[in-house]
Amino acid sequence: MKTAFVTGATAGIGEATVRTLVNSGWRCVATGRRQERLDALVGELGADKVHAACFDVRDREAMEAAIAALPDAFAGIDLLVNNAGLARGLSPAQEASLDDWQTMIDTNVTAMVVLTRKLLPTLIERKGAIIAIGSVAGNYIYPGGNVYAGSKAFANHFTLALRADLHGTGVRVTSIEPGMVETEFTLVRTGSQEASDDLYRGAKPMTAQDIAEMIKWVAELPPHLNINRLEPMPVNQDFAGFRVAREHH
Length: 249
Ligand code: NDP
Ligand code: 8X3
Description:
Blueprint: E1 3-6, H1 12-23, E2 27-32, H2 35-45, E3 50-54, H3 60-68, H4 72-75, E4 79-82, H5 98-125, E5 129-133, H6 146-165, E6 172-176, E7 181-182, H7 185-190, H8 193-200, E8 206-207, H9 208-219, E9 229-230
Parallel strand pairs: 1-2, 1-4, 2-3, 4-5, 5-6, 6-9, 7-8
The structure holds NADPH dihydro-nicotinamide-adenine-dinucleotide phosphate and 2-hydroxyethylsulfonic acid (8X3).
């Protein structure tokens, strides 16, 4: 049985991924800050299938302690799903909160880099795989995207850079860069259930399960196949248009 390490498993894409992988015969280390949600996953799927590792990904010591405390059955990692992440705010840069910017950089950039570096030895030893959840926000610019977009451009490119460095190791690396997925993401971003509901209303966004199925598909491909990047979007979403500001005559 293979083992996946899935960050951000208390909600949305990560939670759906743990459920999908376990139902397909994987073991999962499920991480996040909300212990009660991790406990619920263990209760639902079984302690032999899910190990709950509750820590803040921005806390390097806590991350290291959680890795060191993995039970033997979960200690050899075959798949790292770099998923934990968030957006805070949609304000233009000139009005944005520096604390929000720091939170996004610490979570989406620094934590992903540190965790990946920590798990590379076991991933190489087991000829495993890395799947990272980047975003279309890293590929196309939209107003208010600023630091979130920058952090996801980093995620998209860091993941492809790993693919180059891991050349010849047998480790597979994939960057999945989704558009709009209905999760708690927009609630976290806006701080408002109403704003979140408004954004999704009538848009037919993708579901967390849609992305989990892609992760499972990529993870279970034959070992000679590597998908470099996937960029799924809802049919009702497309690219940001160019804008022109008109001077008054
Ligand atoms: P959710 O808000 O539903 O889930 C986010 C997950 O990240 C939660 O499990 C949360 O756990 C975890 N997380 C956030 N901060 C931390 C932290 N400091 N320490 C540990 N865990 C943390 O959002 P999604 O499922 O939508 O987001 C998952 C990923 O997908 C993110 O990287 C996001 O940028 C990306 N993405 C999302 C899209 C969307 O439209 N929803 C589109 C494209 C990409 P907890 O709060 O318990 O710590
Ligand atoms: C977030 C994707 O389309 O909501 O990563 O900006 S989108």
